[in-house]
Structures are given as structure tokens and as C-alpha cells.
Amino acid sequence: MSLLTSAQAVSIRALLGNSTAGAITMQHQQQQNSGNSTAGAIHMQHQQQQNSTQRLTPRVYFLFLAVDKVSNLQVWNDFFAAAPPDQYRAFVHCKLDACVQQVQGSKLVVVGTVPSYYCTDLVSPMNQLLNYALQDDVHLGPGNPSDKFAFVSDSTLPAKPFATIYDTLHMRQGSDFCVFPSNEWADIPGPQGLQIAVKHHQWVTLNRPHAEKALKLWGEGHFHNFMTQFKMNAESYSAANNSFADNRNFGCLDEFWYMATLYGPLTHLGAQDQMVSLSMFETGQLMISAQAGWQGECDTFVMWSQYLHTPGHNPFYEFHSTLDAMSMPHGGNSARPGWWDTITTTGLKAIRHSSFLFMRKFIDQPRLYDGPNFAEAYKQNVLLA
Asked: Is 121 found in the same domain as 37?
């Protein structure tokens, strides 16, 4: 609708008088302005809703640590092919250029390589991955508090379809730490008792607050000296003489740093067992005890033979006991976990029905005992089942 012309206003004044015509003209102007304002508000609200939807969709960030390749990349390609693009991102830290070349054309985005050293510092590349993930789509606004950041190795495979992993992690509020039996924990004397550093699997899943805090503290140099402070690997290891609170500490930085940084060393006051509550620790509480077995939330199956039969809640034994003979992984040793080089379709179905979200270690292109194509069988029995 257009504004009244001067001639039209004169005509109206002649018929109705100046005051009435002025009122009509003003009312007409207000109606037009109101229409423009309403349209603008609707457009702005629509744009805000659209941006909010883009910005606040929870994502799972899959953070790969790789050396020269990601084994069985075809399985991961099939996994991500079923994933809504706004629900995930996948980043990979490659130690060698061969890995960079291999993942080209896949859903994995390569991050800048930083120096890393087996056992003494794999935390640097892990936090490099967090750095890239936390900067993802920052132009859309702050990330969703329900975002999750899952570390996976280059020999890991998904144990469930994407939707199952996404829904499982999205429903959990805290971070997933798979805590080793307590004889693997580290300890040093403290002013009020033993200072305990809890040992956990490297393959943690962090929630967004923990991911942001970890990256910030790493940048500030927090616990860069952990291996020295806790006198790690200073003595010869013996599985027969590795007990809780014995001041003999073994392990790698990546197996301690995240819990030690996010929760601090825990104080053990004496010989009695202690139950401690940890904020945003999935399952809520941790038992400090010489008899403590597996604790926390274990997302990834790893074959540590010496702890396969640990008493108490033991998801590793529960899954391992469902495997047929030809699907049993190799046992590994106290320093290196076991691996698969052969598996059956029955074993693949056991993976799908296990409690785990991820499985490791698989060699690249393992043998499918009862079929011609491992990747296709994995797709049919795990990813599409």
C-alpha cells in the first residue's frame, strides 16, 4: 500500500476537514509502518530459529589418532554414510604424510600435525584434535552443551550403527572414562595422605565442559610434568608385583592426564576404602580401594589379557565370553593389548550385541573366516543390523 499523495490529502480535507484528514493520513502511515515492522520481526525470528537449529544440534566429534593410516577406512566410510551431516564431525591427527594421503576424499578432516611421542606424550595430538573440534562452526555461535568428543585409534572400529552411538552418547550427561583396576593407579606421598592418580583407557569420551577445560589447562602447562612428578616407569615392571598404593607407578601420560587434570589427584586418607563423587563422571562415583576392579564407563573394548577375568563388573569378559573360537582376539601382553586378524560373521554379530560402542584393535583388512569380504560383512552385521 502506498502513501497518500498531496492531492488526495487536499481532497480529503475538503470533504472531512483538516483534523479528520490528518488523522486518516497518520493512521494510514502507522498501518504501513506496522506492516513493515511485523514483516521484519517475522523474518528476524525465522533467521534466529534457523541459526539456533544449526548451532544447537548436538554433535559427536570423532577424534582419530593415526600414524600412517586409518585401518579399514571403508568401514568408517560406510559408518559415516548413514550419519546426518549436522550430527557429527570427524577429525584425524596423522603422524605421517601417508595417512594424510590415505584419508583424502573421506569424511575425516586432517588437523595440523604436532610432535608426539609414544607413551610420554600422546596428549599433545589429542588436544590438537580438541582444539580443531572446539573451533568447529564457531561462527554459528556457542556449541551445544550435549556435544561429545570421542577419541578413537587408527585400529578402532565402530561397534554399533551411527544412530545408536549418537543416541547413547547424547543421552549421557558426563564424560566416559574407563578406569583400570586400582593396582594400575599411580600414587605419591602427599601432605594429607597418598595422592592418587587414576589410570584410565586412553580412549575417553569427553563432554563439552570437560573438553574446553582440558584444552585450556593443557595450554597453561597443567601437568605437563606428570610423568616426572609421579615417577612413572622408574622401576622395572612386574605384573606379579604391581599393587595398589605401592609407590611403584607404570603407564603412559595419555592414561592419566585427563582424569588427573579434570579432577586432580585424589587424596587417600588411610587403609579404609573410600567412595568419592566426581562431577560429570559418567556413573557418578569412584571407589578408592585395593580391591577395586573396572570402573566408570567403558566405550571401547580393548583386550588386556591380565584383566580379562577381573572380579566384579567386567564388560570385557562379558563380551569376550560370547565369541566363538575363530573370533577370539590375540591376547597381547602387559604392555600392548591384543588384536584381531581373523573373525567370523558370528563374531561380528557378537560385536553388534555387545555393550561397547567401539572395538579395537583390528589389523587392516582382517580375514573373514567364513566369507570373502570383511568390510561388506561388517557393514551388514554391525552397521546395518
From this structure: no
